[in-house]
Amino acid sequence: MHAVMVRVKVDTSREDEARQVLRDVVVPTAKALPGFTRGDWIRALDSDEGLSVLLFDSEDAARSAVEQIRSQGPPTGVPVTMQSVTAYEVVEQA
């Protein structure tokens, strides 16, 4: 199992819009990525930082997802700025 972590900054003055884009665009796009098995989108309680943790069934799928996410970035005009996209090996789950 492999994971892709995406770090973003969210414009807190437009958070409702950011959540709508997440539901309507980001999640369906992630679910369509080859090898996608699950995802969690989380937001820091005391800051504008958000994280996506996407799980994939293979290293190749995770690496491919990283390249696609980097090349596409967030939709134009949304209140989200991508900070980083990184692939990881999932070493253990509980």
Task: Report on this structure.
The structure is a single chain. The protein has 94 residues and is α+β, with helices and mostly antiparallel strands. It is built from two helices and four strands, in the order E-H-E-E-H-E. It has helices at residues 15-31, 59-72; strands at 2-10, 36-43, 49-56, 80-89. The protein has a four-stranded antiparallel β-sheet, covered by helices on one side. The chain is globular, with a radius of gyration of 13 Å.
Tell me the fraction of residues in β-strands, as a range.
35-45%
The shape, in one word, is globular
Order of helices and strands: EHEEHE
Q: What value does the average pLDDT take?
A: 96
Number of DSSP strands?
A: 4
Q: Tell me about the largest β-sheet.
A: 4 strands, antiparallel
Amount of helix: 25-40%
- Can you list the strand order of the major beta sheet? 2-3-1-4
- Count the helices. How many? 2
Sequence stretches where pLDDT stays below 50 over 5 or more residues: none
Radius of gyration in whole Å, from Cα? 13 Å
Structural class: alpha+beta
Distance between the termini: 13 Å
Keywords:
alpha+beta
Give the topology.
Blueprint: E1 2-10, H1 15-31, E2 36-43, E3 49-56, H2 59-72, E4 80-89
Antiparallel strand pairs: 1-3, 1-4, 2-3
